[in-house]
UniProtKB/TrEMBL annotation:
One of its GO terms (molecular function) is serine-type peptidase activity. It comes from Acidocella aminolytica 101 = DSM 11237. This is Peptidase S49. Belongs to the peptidase S49 family. SUPFAM superfamilies: ClpP/crotonase. Gene3D superfamilies: 2-enoyl-CoA Hydratase, Chain A, domain 1 (3.90.226.10), 6.20.330.10. It holds the Pfam family Peptidase_S49. PANTHER family: PEPTIDASE S49, PROTEINASE. CDD domains: S49_Sppa_N_C (cd07023). GO terms for biological process: proteolysis. Residues 40-187 form the Peptidase S49 domain. Keywords: Hydrolase, Protease, Serine protease. The lineage of its organism: Bacteria, Pseudomonadati, Pseudomonadota, Alphaproteobacteria, Acetobacterales.
Length: 230
């Protein structure tokens, strides 16, 4: 979808990204954000991001790939932080006489096991990982927003989400507007937005993706400690 958008923008050299996301995988946010920047710089495309209802955490990470960011006064913006979580079921399985059987090679292969008591060393390891991702997130925002950010970094980087009005005051967005309005400002009154949406998979690909979705249930436990931008 992004490839199609960049291809269509080669003539006008302008592209508007519609952001509607509360966040997601930290690694995917970074990969997509970097890909957007590479394409924009290679093709010399001016990028503008427009946040709808929400562009927070990973969604805001993607918005920062643009040269300018717009939103509505009531859009949810920011949430520049990292979270991970899970459940502790060690007392539950003990109470029900369930024995957990697992084998590993490597002392730290299984950290934060939901079926075992909490370990301080695992919590310290995970917190250090979250802090590292958070620093990368903050660095990306500083790089992309530059001097537009205010000096009140405590309010910007503590993980809070906020409405568009405050986001503009803090320099997280450049102004207010919706996609149609921004398209006309960039291309003139006769300009119209061309909405590109993912093409639904067909045939064999649909079957493969359905099976892949079912298979994700088998790896849910392993992914429980994956850093999430949310």
């Amino acid at each position: 979808m992004l490839e199609r958008g960049f291809a269509m923008a080669k003539k006008s050299r302008k592209l508007v990204l519609s952001i509607e996301s509360p966040g997601g995988s930290a690694s995917q946010s970074d990969l997509i954000g970097q890909m957007i920047r590479r394409k924009a710089e290679k093709d010399k495309i001016e990028l503008t991001a427009v946040i709808g209802d929400v562009g927070a955490s990973g969604g805001y990470w993607l918005a920062c790939a643009a040269d300018k960011i717009f939103a509505s006064r009531l859009s949810i913006v920011g949430s520049i932080g990292v979270v991970t979580g899970g459940f502790g079921l060690d007392e539950f399985i003990a109470r029900h006489g369930i024995e957990r059987r697992t084998m590993t090679a490597g002392v730290h292969k299984r950290r934060n096991d939901m079926f075992a008591p909490r370990k301080p060393e695992d919590e310290a390891f995970t917190q250090a990982l979250l802090d590292e991702v958070h620093e990368m997130f903050k660095g990306w925002v500083r790089e992309r927003r530059g001097t537009r950010l205010t000096q009140d970094e405590a309010r910007i980087f503590e993980g809070d989400f906020m409405l568009g009005e405050r986001a503009r005051t803090l320099g997280l967005i450049d102004g207010f507007g919706d996609v149609e309005q921004i398209v006309k400002e960039l291309g003139g009154e006769k300009a119209k937005a061309v909405w590109l949406r993912p093409r639904p998979p067909r045939g064999l690909l649909r079957l493969i993706l359905r099976n892949a979705a079912e298979a994700t249930l088998d790896v849910a436990e392993e992914r429980a400690a994956t850093p999430i931008l949310r």
